Prior knowledge:
Elements: H1 8-26, H2 34-45, E1 49-50, H3 51-58, H4 62-74, E2 78-83, E3 86-94, H5 98-116, H6 122-163
Antiparallel strand pairs: 1-3, 2-3
Amino acid sequence: MQNPDKSIGFLIHDVTRLMRRNLMRRAQDLDLSQAQWRALAFLSRQEGVKQITLADTLEIQPITLARMIDRLEELGLVIRRPDPEDRRAVRLYLTPEAQPLLDKMWERAAQTHEDAQADLTAAEREQFIKTLQQMKQSLLATEERLGREDLELEERIANAAVRS
């Protein structure tokens, strides 16, 4: 049996959980839930995303996200706009009022990052980021390959059914 203390997945999960908890303690006075923070952070990176895409990215149900966005709209932090290419979809945008809150969030996140890396040298920090980026790219490439393989399998099954 593998030791969880030496498992990449367990360690990344544990560090992520601890960093989230640390950040949420620092950000208690801002009166937003962890899920709301995550939504705002993602939107700051990719404004105009479809609501359904954001739900998938945050790994939450679309109805749960819809309620969350309702609340963020009430707070004046997010607006919904119709998708010009798909009348059933909406795209999400941050309002100017969100920026000061995001600035505070990023300041507190930087403090959390500093705490997490306190015992690492500058070279170790740089290498750690490079390693994580490489792992991310490897997993994205694997996801793409597996997606193609799934499509090929579905195509073979459909072709076999047509021949029968």
